[in-house]
Amino acid sequence: MATVHKSLFHKPLFRPEAIRPAMKNFILPDRVDAIRPKLAVWAKQLTGKKLDQLKETELLPDFITDIFGGVLGYAGPVSKFDTYSMKRGALVKVDGKFADAAFGEFGLGKERFVAVLEGKGPKDPLDRPYAGRHKSAVDQSMNYAVQLKIDWYIVANMRETRLYYKGV
After folding, report:
1. What residues are paired with 106 via a beta bridge?
2. Which terminus of the chain has fewer CB atoms gathered within 10 Å of its CB, N or C?
3. What's the pLDDT tens digit per position in 107-116?
């Protein structure tokens, strides 16, 4: 397993001097105002110990709905559109495990995957196996991306969300 230097995670994805001018004119979508109260609850809960006592399976569905659906605007199969952009659950099976969510274009005979998500509980580290698992969340998610033949994969433990590009 490759060792990743921790300082890599403190570098911004985009250079501040490049993004700052574009951000001056950026207006958040109206849907963000509606989700702000939920985000405040998430922020409060994640700074405390309550979520550490709960199982990943209790938290992950709400996290995916609130963050990827509410904030980022991905829609599941029960939406006003014929096609949708977020699938959950048994999408692809690798080593007996199933991806937690996938993003792309689905419905009306379409199934085009763009990214896959592996979610973990708030105490779970993303870079190493935890709680008897044989693979880290990063390795699990990358394996799903390989199986689906896509370049993007996401790992999240609710306190941290990472987007990776594997390239093919």
Report:
1. 84, 111
2. C
3. 888 889 999 9
